[in-house]
Amino acid sequence: MKLEIRNVTKKYGKFCAVKNFSYEFTEGVYGLLGPNGAGKTTIIRILADVLNPTDGSVMLNGEDIKDMDYRYRNLIGYLPQDFGVYKNFTAHRFLMYIAALKGLSKTESQKRIEELLEITNLKEYSNVKTGTFSGGMKRRLGIAQALLNDPKILIMDEPTAGLDPKERVRFRNLLSEISKDKIVILSTHIVSDIEYISKEIVLIKKGEILKTGSSESLTNEIKGKVWKVLTDENGLKTIEERFTVGNIFRNGNKIETRIISENRPDDSAEAEIPTMEDVFLYYFDELSE
Amino acid sequence: MIKEEKKFDIEEMDLPEGMTTDYLSDLFSKYTVNMPDECEIERVINSLSEYIPQKTKWYEKLYKNFKYFIERWNISLYSISHAYWIFTLCLYIFGFYIVYSNGVNPYITIMLISPLPFVLGILEVIKGREEGVLELEMSCRISNREMVFSKLTLAGIYNIILNTLLSIMLININENVDILKVTMVCLTPFTFVSAVSLYICSKTRGYYSCMACIFIWIAISFSISMSPKYINRFFSIDFFQYLLILISGVLLLIFNTKKFLKTNVLEKEVN
Question: Order of strands, edge to edge, in the sheet holding A226-231?
Answer without folding.
Answer: A244-251, A254-260, A226-231, A270-271
